[in-house]
Amino acid sequence: xxxxxxxxTFLGHLYHPDCIIAEMTREDGEYDGWGLAPGxxxxxxxxxxxxxxxxxxxxxxxxxxxxxxxxxxVVMPWDTxxxxxxxxxxxx
Length: 92
Ligand SMILES: [Zn+2]
Hints:
By secondary structure, the chain is α+β, with helices and mostly antiparallel strands. The chain is built from two helices and three strands; from the N terminus they run ββααβ. A hairpin with a 2-residue loop joins β1 (7-10) and β2. The structure holds zinc ion.
């Protein structure tokens, strides 16, 4: 599992890995309710995205997936999460 994912880019915005699934379920009816139903066990974000992609027949390796979150490994110190508004890049 990739350990260097700092954020996800989705529809032109950046999101915390912990925020991207919630954003997808709220923002886009296609994914409405996914992963938020009671009793759904927590899965790592990459696993959840793999599951969502599989469920909707989306090839995460394909080039035409701008409607699906893409992992980001480099963020700027001032980048903020569109979902929660907190800084993404603060470290050290
Ligand atoms: Zn966030």
